[in-house]
Amino acid sequence: MAQAQPQPITAQDMMQLDAEAAGARMQFAAVIVLDGAPTLATVRAVLAARLAAVPRLRQRLIRRPRGRPVWVPVPDVDLARQVDEVPCPEPGDRSALLAVAARIVPQRLSLARPPWRVTLVSGLAGGRSALVIVLHHVLADGLAGLAVLAALVDGPAPAPSAPDPARRGPPGLSRLRAAAAELLGNGLQTAPRCSINAGPVDVGGPHRTLAVAQADLAAVVTAARAAGGTVNDVVLTAVTGALGAALAERGEVLDRLVVSVPISARVRAGTGELGNRVGVLPVSVPLAGAPGDRLPVVVAVTRARKTAMPGASTVLWSPFVRLLAAVGAFGPFIEHQRLVNTFVTNVRGPSRPLTIGSLRVLELIPVAPISGNVGVAFSVLSYAGRLTITVVADATRCPDGPRVAQLLQGQLAALTEPG
């Protein structure tokens, strides 16, 4: 049988490596809280049985003298190096777990091995434990990362997915022209100056903080539909309201915030074709008014922005980022950019409860990367009827991450609870 040819990474995947070479830390994670305490040996055995479902988890990158790096198989993945264990400090609650995850997630993944890592966090209160699964962005974007997670849960071992069908758009030159017109015309506005963008973040820690706000997903959907919008609109309203209020408490009163939100070009979530297929959409969100009054305004703003070609910014930014990286200017660019104030990533997770190794998954907590001069980002994931928003902050730029999460909890309550 002929061996499969090495698969080059895509131009958009290459952007992730260029960003990391410029100093960013392009990796994201999920914190999976389990109703039980498996041993490290059990976790490694479960993962060993599931790796066949995701071929990319059994590959690593090889750089070539010319052309893009390629994915090549790793015959025997060393789970002793990929999967480890750390104890959770007292009292073993969510805050203690998030402090552990904040330390683990930014630790650099080696591209000499498959670019992922799993850490078992033992000793949580109530006899629970957690898995912190970290993936490099060159391996998958958020939606594909969710497919990886789904392939690692219990149930019949799935066969490797077939590649997603190719999606053909306009020819490259016309897409680039359309992208340039959209972005350089009315697509990008200068973001207002504020302290969270005053300088570069510490990408590798130890100043990373994580805090969580949650809401009932059905209540969020009801609020969104009542305003003629989407769950994303509710999230944008709550996130910008919370961040604006936190800045106002510091004496920084703004009239708007510019938020970068992802636009996926995927037909579906699957493990057959991972990598990155996401564009970005900068949205300028007004801050004036109560949460319920702001939601219809946000719905109108996002609807107007979505009339632009989805993913257009990716078409433009890919060669632009490569050019900046080639001349050593990408790092200074992202550390001084004035295009966005913060990032929001939102992925729809499993609607049914999951299990791993026969243990129930109680919570899925997403963790997005922060880089450049964006001192706080928001990572959103729905799971089993709950919407979880993680505030990922760099304490040097956003020292009040837990306060932002507290304000966010209040914004969500104001939008979803009657009266």
TrEMBL record:
Known pathway: Glycerolipid metabolism; triacylglycerol biosynthesis; Lipid metabolism
Reactions catalysed: an acyl-CoA + a 1,2-diacyl-sn-glycerol = a triacyl-sn-glycerol + CoA
EC number: 2.3.1.20
Originating species: Nakamurella multipartita (strain ATCC 700099 / DSM 44233 / CIP 104796 / JCM 9543 / NBRC 105858 / Y-104)
UniProt record similarity statement: Belongs to the long-chain O-acyltransferase family.
Boundaries of every O-acyltransferase WSD1 C-terminal domain copy: 275-415
Stretches that traverse the bilayer: none
GO molecular function: diacylglycerol O-acyltransferase activity
Stated name of the protein: diacylglycerol O-acyltransferase
GO BP field: biological process involved in interaction with host; glycerol metabolic process; response to hypoxia; response to nitric oxide; triglyceride biosynthetic process
Keywords from the named record: Acyltransferase, Glycerol metabolism, Lipid biosynthesis, Lipid metabolism, Transferase
Coiled coil: none
GO cellular component: plasma membrane
Record-annotated O-acyltransferase WSD1-like N-terminal domain positions: 10-187
